[in-house]
Q: What sequence folds into this?
């Protein structure tokens, strides 16, 4: 069994996911780069290795059962366990003018597509990786969410939460709820499960609009991925601290 700590980051070929992988690699983790696109995945692995990380590619489409099963088998063959799972892969769905998603005109097919990736995909990957996580001495699961998923903040008139996003924001609320249920189910184990918000990061996800860099956005996920034993579980954080649900 590999003596290095092993991490898998989904959607790690670019943006925040790539920076999470780089940060964990810099801490000495062997990092699986989960990504659908073969060429982008290979380029990301090469870049991480050039930076000194022990990185390996993991073909992974979070919406496909067979792909996820094969990814778990690959990690098992390589390491025999998994210490950290970062569920970073996500999509926003189609955006209208001003980045809005009007609930009165929502495309239900688009809603299903976003939930399939942002929620069901997270559950699919987590469930496939759980047997490997259970073999770790200090397993951690980090779900990359958003403050837009906070019902408390969305309903506070004193908090600016941007345009109405009737597809993306509820998908993150759903993900937050799922995070809580995993933490409850696994409360009698050593697996810590938390959600994180990277903030408004300039990546191709949002047309490179945002005041934060991918590295800044990755920092909170890296912190939660490396929590000490006895750390929080079933909570929601950004780099300023805990976020209300």
A:
């Amino acid at each position: 069994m590999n003596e290095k700590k092993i991490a898998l980051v989904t959607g790690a070929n670019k943006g925040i996911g790539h920076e999470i992988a780089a940060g964990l690699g810099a801490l000495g983790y062997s990092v699986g780069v989960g990504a659908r696109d073969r060429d982008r995945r290979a380029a990301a692995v090469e870049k991480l290795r050039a930076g000194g990380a022990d990185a390996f590619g993991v073909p992974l489409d979070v919406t496909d059962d067979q792909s996820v099963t094969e990814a778990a088998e690959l990690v098992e063959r390589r390491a025999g366990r998994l210490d950290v799972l970062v569920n970073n892969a996500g999509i926003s769905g189609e955006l209208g003018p001003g980045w809005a998603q009007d609930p009165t005109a929502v495309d239900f097919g688009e809603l299903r597509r976003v939930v399939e990736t942002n929620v069901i995909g997270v559950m699919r990957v987590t469930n496939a990786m759980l047997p490997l996580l259970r073999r770790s001495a200090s397993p951690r699961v980090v779900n990359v969410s958003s403050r837009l998923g906070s019902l408390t903040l969305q309903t506070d008139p004193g908090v600016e939460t941007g345009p109405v996003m009737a597809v993306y924001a509820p998908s993150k609320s759903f993900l937050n709820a799922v995070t809580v249920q995993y933490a409850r189910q696994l409360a009698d184990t050593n697996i810590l499960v938390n959600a994180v918000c990277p903030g408004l990061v300039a990546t191709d996800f949002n047309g490179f609009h945002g005041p934060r860099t991918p590295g800044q956005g990755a920092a909170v996920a890296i912190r939660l991925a490396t929590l000490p034993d006895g750390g929080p579980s079933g909570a929601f954080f950004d780099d300023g601290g805990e976020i209300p649900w």
